[in-house]
Amino acid sequence: MLYRYRAGIPWRDLPAHFGDWKNVHRRLPRWCETGVIERIFRYLAADHDNKYMMIDSTIVRAH
């Protein structure tokens, strides 16, 4: 899911190694409702290296 938002691609263009795009698409609302996404971000934010929180020109997309 994060790959899709970072790359700015439609759901149908997800690489095959992520599995069926429709299943990934259905999983997002479930994970949001059950708090999985929040736990993932809290875990990443607790990393003292903070390399996951860095933003640079390779991540930011101008539309």
Describe the model:
This protein is mainly α. The protein has one domain. It has three helices and no strands. The chain has helices at residues 2-7, 21-34, 36-45. The longest helix has 14 residues, at 21-34. It is globular and about 35 Å long. The two termini are 20 Å apart. InterPro entries: IS402-like_dom, Transposase_6_like.
Rg (CA only): 13 Å
Number of strands: 0
Q: What's the overall average pLDDT, rounded?
A: 78
Shape: globular
**Count of the separate structural domains:** 1
Question: Number of helical segments?
Answer: 3
Helix content: 40-55%
Which residues sit in consecutive blocks of at least 5 with pLDDT less than 50? none
Beta-strand content bin: under 5%
Distance between the termini: 20 Å
Order of helices and strands: HHH
| SSE class | mainly alpha
Please summarize the sheet with the most strands.
none
